[in-house]
Design a protein that fits this description.
binds adenosine-5'-triphosphate; binds magnesium ion; about 25% strand; Heat Shock Protein 90; five-stranded antiparallel sheet; about 350 residues; 9 helices; 3 domains; alpha+beta; Helix Hairpins
Length: about 350
């Protein structure tokens, strides 16, 4: 049995080459795969579109080829040495298999896998959102229960602080103590206010059509003196598309944007840029705040919406972003955060576009 007979198969194209690298025999499938007649093949070298040649006669080549004939045809090529009885090289064999269908299947599987991964990611995001909203709801309910009592206590503390301040202004040591009490009580009042904001139920009677562009402009104007006071050089730009109207509670939306902006300002140490943009598409309005600040670590990015999570020590309550999430959720919207450490952060608030 000759080598060709031995290797012949209806699927594979088989070509035998002599030591001069000329084809001395081939099967019909090889001629078919090369797009020529069998007798044109015998005696000639391999067609020129098969570019890889063995470095030596006993070299083995395995590669995938994309021939010019046949739409999107993909061939697998094996090329290796053939030995005689005395272990002497007698020529080479080339085996070509049409792997077009297999390749198509592989691409399809890859595509399906990609779709599945995307679906999985979306599912995970939805689960995280659900968990977040559940956590915020529980926290809100708890906060509503204690806010009243704490506020009463803080009212008494702050009222007495005012009285005491008037009585002993001449003792500087004592005055400093009283001012510390006042500051701590005000911080606590601020925490309670944020907790109440998180737990506030949706009140649609307060909802009006709000022009997010105009609201953004006024929030920026109100906040600018603040960072100028802190001696920060912040280059702020606003790209506001007209007609970006959402149905919502103006005070809440202002509060949400103020918190996002505050975080952006706090992320910038001395000098940086904040880009605010409000855009709409056919169904939603997207407000983005991009800062060139310190950015977030992976851990921070994961926990940014966790109530009381802060990297700012006693300077932060860690309730800012929880409040933002709660407000956006009450407006049937979504918050997304993209951040890279050392590069900056983009916070996007997406709301349904008002009809
Ligand atoms: N723009 C930002 N750049 C970098 N880190 C941010 C940004 N926004 C939020 N973070 C990180 O997320 C944490 C939580 O933010 P969040 O606003 O909830 O709390 P906070 O700013 O620390 O405190 P608070 O808002 O109550 O003053 C921050 O401590 C900070 O680490
Ligand atoms: Mg904050």
């Amino acid at each position: 049995m000759s080598a060709l007979e031995y290797l012949d198969s209806p699927e594979r194209g088989v070509v035998l080459l002599d030591l001069d690298y000329r084809i001395n025999s081939a099967n019909h499938r090889a001629a078919e795969l090369f797009g020529v007649k069998l007798d044109q093949l015998i005696g000639s070298p391999l067609p020129s579109w098969i570019k890889t040649r063995p470095k030596s006669l006993d070299d083995v080549i395995e590669e995938v080829l994309y021939p010019h004939f046949g739409p999107n045809t993909v061939l697998h090529r094996y090329s290796g040495p053939v030995y005689g009885l005395q272990n002497n090289l007698v020529g080479r064999v080339e085996i070509y298999s049409d792997i077009t269908a297999r390749r198509r299947l592989e691409t399809e599987i890859l595509e399906r896998n990609r779709e599945l991964a995307e679906l999985n990611k979306r599912l995970q995001e939805t689960q995280e959102e659900l968990l977040r909203s559940e956590r915020l709801r529980t926290l809100g309910e708890m906060a509503a229960g204690i806010a009243h009592d704490i506020n009463n206590a803080l009212g008494i503390v702050l009222g007495n602080v005012q009285l005491a301040k008037r009585r002993i202004p001449e003792d500087p040591e004592c005055l400093r103590c009283i001012e510390s009490i006042e500051m701590a009580a005000k911080d606590a009042a601020d925490t309670v206010r944020k907790l109440k904001e998180i737990g506030r139920p949706v009140d649609r009677s307060r909802y009006r059509p709000i022009d997010l562009g105009a609201l953004t402009e006024s929030v920026i104007a109100a906040m600018t003196p603040q960072w100028q006071e802190q001696d920060k050089q912040i280059d702020i730009t606003a790209d506001l598309q007209p007609g970006c109207t959402v149905e919502g509670d103006e005070a809440e939306l202002r509060e949400a944007l103020t918190n996002v902006m505050l975080n952006a300002v706090q992320a910038i140490n001395r000098q940086g840029a904040i880009k605010v943009a409000v855009h709409k598409n056919s169904s939603q309005v997207v407000l983005t705040v991009a800062d060139s600040g310190i950015g977030m670590s992976e851990e921070t990015k994961k926990r940014v919406f966790d109530p009381f999570f802060t990297t700012r020590g006693s300077a932060g309550t860690g309730l800012g972003m929880s409040m933002v999430a709660a407000i956006v959720m009450r407006h049937n919207g979504k918050v997304k955060v993209e951040s890279e450490q050392g590069k900056g952060t983009i916070v996007a608030l997406c709301f349904p576009l008002a009809e």
